[in-house]
Design brief:
heterodimer, A: alpha+beta, 22% helix, B: alpha+beta
């Protein structure tokens, strides 16, 4: 049976999450996003043209290492907590349908000049309102020096 | 070898666009036919659903001929979770549709090789040709049904070609 009790979402959980992430070493994560006008040429689909990914900064965010896997050949995994307020602002700016689309479009995440690949996504919510996005990241094995922000 | 791989992908993509214009995907901001070369896209945790992913694996060469004959193995990965209208209960049927589309876009099994590093693409002197697809058994991973088809692609290495 459906729960029909009134649950008015407030922005308190959003503000609380933002404040917590900021005070707990809040950093900036940069999503690598495709340019607004994509490359429709054959060369763009064959890896000949540079993809010209744009950096989309999201903050505050907290970045932490997960428990070491200690398995040969396994890349280290990390967790990135991003304030939902920042994600919602980015979704609105890019006129996307949802945060899922935003993360699905991202080719990776750059934090402190290092590239990470998105393995999975989860959310924490209160009264049906998402206040934190959690990304499981894997360290990229391509040791490219990346620009941290635009 | 790269020209052969590029030509193989573009040929299958164009044939798919003609055969089933509805099979599209949106990748890097562009809606395009539902087929991609894995090594030319950003790494993904899982292959895209309802799209064909080309993965190049083995390479053999025959140097005893006047021109080097390269044999490359292309694995074509595809998966589906069915359609939302049918709540995924038609995933077996959708996978079968993808099997059929793949068989059709692989015929005819040859095409003229092009060099796509130049714009417009330059036609080359030789053809590439490929074997019939070998289909692996379908595997079910939670709500996804997946299959891999393997195709041997043959191409002559032309003088000056990298």
């Amino acid at each position: 049976m459906a729960d029909l009790s009134t649950q008015n979402p407030t922005s308190y959980s959003l503000q609380m999450a933002t404040a917590l992430l900021r005070t707990n070493g809040g950093t900036t994560a940069n999503l690598l996003m495709p340019p607004a006008t994509g490359d429709a040429a054959d060369t763009g689909q064959l890896g000949i043209d540079a993809p010209n990914f744009q950096s989309l900064p999201l903050s505050p965010a907290v970045f932490r290492k997960l428990r070491a896997t200690m398995k040969e050949g396994d890349a280290t995994k990390y967790e990135l907590l991003i304030a939902a307020a920042a994600v919602q602002a980015a979704v609105g700016d890019l006129q996307l349908s949802s945060a899922d689309t935003l993360f699905a479009m991202a080719a990776g995440v750059v934090i402190d000049g290092k590239l990470f690949l998105i393995e999975a996504k989860a959310v924490s919510e209160h009264l049906g309102e998402v206040y934190i996005y959690r990304l499981l990241l894997r360290e990229s094995t391509a040791e490219w020096p990346m620009q941290s922000s635009t | 070898m790269q020209n052969a791989k590029d030509t193989f992908y573009i040929t299958l993509r164009n044939r798919l666009a003609t055969l089933n214009p509805a099979r599209t995907m949106t990748l890097r901001g562009i809606t395009r036919p539902g087929i991609l070369a894995e090594d030319a896209e950003a790494p993904m945790p899982q292959p895209l659903l309802d799209a064909f992913t080309l993965r190049w694996t083995r390479l053999d060469t025959d140097t005893q001929l006047p021109s080097i004959l390269a044999q490359m193995v292309c694995e074509i990965h595809y998966a589906t979770a069915g359609t939302q209208t049918n709540s995924g209960l038609n995933r077996g049927r959708v996978l079968e549709e993808m099997d059929d589309e793949l068989i059709q876009i692989l015929c005819p099994s040859s095409t003229i090789k092009f060099n796509y590093t130049q714009t417009p693409a330059v036609q080359m002197s030789t053809m590439l040709f490929w074997s019939q697809a070998l289909f692996s058994p379908a595997t079910a991973v939670r709500e996804r049904m997946e299959r891999v088809a393997t195709v041997n692609v043959f191409a002559f290495q032309e003088p000056g070609e990298q």
